[in-house]
Amino acid sequence: MMDDPWKEVSMIIHPLQRATPEAVGISSRAILAFVDETEATLDELHSFMLLCHGKVAAEGWWKPYAPHLPHMLFSLSKSFTSTAIGLAVAEGRLSIDDPVLKFFPEEASPSPSENLKAMRLRQLLSMSTGHQEDTTGRMASAEDGNWARAFLSLPVEHKPGTHFVYNSGATYMLSAVIQKVTGVTLLEYLKPRLFEPLGIDNP
């Protein structure tokens, strides 16, 4: 068994092939009509790419955006955070059934609520932590800047797993868990495991 299975990950990057729309069975006029309709309907377009049979049949960017410029991904980053948790599970570093409090002994209250004690990583992943509303705003306003402590100090109104609310604070806590168990940031953890093998040089 290898000490570090990630060393065996292939670093060969295969750039996407290009083809004309007609070469992959798509009408150029249909693509233009779609782009025109989308441009007229949406307030702001940044970029567009159409793949068919593994080949790029059409692509474009609206100024000031360009293919070489990094782009804010906002909540798409949640997918990368969840992926990091999955990788950490595969490496035996944690389980999604671990209590959230297990990772934050210094940040937690000495007398946490029963609902907080019942909260597991799986509820962070599914945004069913039991909070009545998104925790992000209250975490961001924490005077000491400790978002994890702020999250753990908030009331958990519902039993975890019974109430869904879109909660970016839950995703932040997952990134904090990764940092606790690995000693590196989420980005540093994902670089050799995900971004570099995919050829993403500037995530």
From TrEMBL:
Family annotation (Pfam families): Beta-lactamase
Keywords: Hydrolase
Protein name, as recorded: Class C beta-lactamase-related serine hydrolase
An example molecular function term from Gene Ontology annotations: hydrolase activity
Record domain Beta-lactamase-related: where: 51-202
InterPro entries the record matches: Beta-lactam-related, Beta-lactam/transpept-like, Diverse_Enzym_Activities
Protein's organism: Anaerolinea thermolimosa
